[in-house]
Amino acid sequence: MSVYAISREFFSFLKKKQDDERISVTSSVLNLMKITSMLLFASSVLSTAKQFFGDPIHCDTKEVHVDAGLFEHYCWIQASFVAPQKFVNNTKLRFQHSEEERVYQNYYQWIPFILFFQGVLCYIPYNYWKISENGKVAGFIKIVRSDRENHTSSEFDFGNPDATNIVALAKSLILKRGSHCGYALKYVFAQFLCVASLALQLYAMDWMMGGNFLTLGTKLLYIQTDDDIKDFDKNPLLKIFPRLIRCWFEGKMGMSGTPERYAALCILPVNVFNEKVFVFIWFWFIILIFVGLIHFCWSVITVACSLPRVFILRFSVNSSSASFAYDRLVQMSDFGDWFL
């Protein structure tokens, strides 16, 4: 069977597709990355609203003789340290934190920007592929469908003047056979970018959060009782997104000429929202990495072996004659031609 005849079988199969069939040239992983970026952008907007239009921090300044607004603004922009529950419940220990027991946090005010940047990173693989693909496959399908409206026979007649667009397309594909590897490899690279972007973000967040983020989900799964939820050592969220912190403020000179140092407990209502967002991010990213690795490995296998390509084409075609034609087509073409 000639390449010309194989092309005829190929376009005959395309002709039988329904008009309302949706043309999609992106994988499910790329679409999920796009959805993830939209969710991250939305979370960034909500977090910003809570910070600038809500009450992100509230401090108990009854004992420090400092204006509450001044103290809260200072604590919000300065690094504060998390107060373990034992120091909160015992008034004798409130000012006895050793330096080793303090866990300083100064990133929670940057959460809206972090979420926005993560949204950009998640959108990059999808946008890269859309730019690389540039509507090529959709253009091919539109050519087939436009000629189909003027040609109603069960098989394409390559000599029929109504099918001139399809004939030109078939000849173009035949002449350019073997020149589509770069196009296909860009798709494989986009799959790799998905996994790399997600993994990079996980490690970056773990670094930012003091090495407490990578194991966040697994530690949360081991929490079983209410006491575990309140345990500073068992619940990682108490360290990563504390709801209660201690802040130091150096005020005016005292009678001895030395600065007076004030300390107060502050609550962070905004972290109630932030912790839920990042718990979702942890589990969602793990799922996406798993699915992305499967897609990427399958893409690599189809590049290296022709058997999976034959299997995919056979699965998509019911006709035995078309199945034989596709077997020959795979044998005569490389990965780029098959992908296109």
Automatic annotation (TrEMBL):
Keyword entries, A-Z: Cell junction, Cell membrane, Gap junction, Ion channel, Ion transport, Membrane, Transmembrane, Transmembrane helix, Transport
GO cellular component, one term: plasma membrane
A Pfam family per the record: Innexin
Membrane topology, record value: Multi-pass membrane protein
Cell membrane as UniProt keyword: yes
An annotated Gene Ontology molecular function: gap junction channel activity
Main location: other
Keyword Transmembrane helix applies: yes
TM helices/strands, residue ranges: 23-46, 107-126, 184-204, 281-307
InterPro entries associated with the record: Innexin (IPR000990)
GO biological process per UniProt: monoatomic ion transmembrane transport
Subcellular localization, as worded in the UniProt entry: Cell junction, Gap junction; Cell membrane
Source taxon at top rank: Eukaryota
Similarity annotation: Belongs to the pannexin family.
Purpose of the protein: Structural component of the gap junctions.
Official protein name in the record: Innexin
Source organism of the structure: Lepeophtheirus salmonis (Salmon louse)
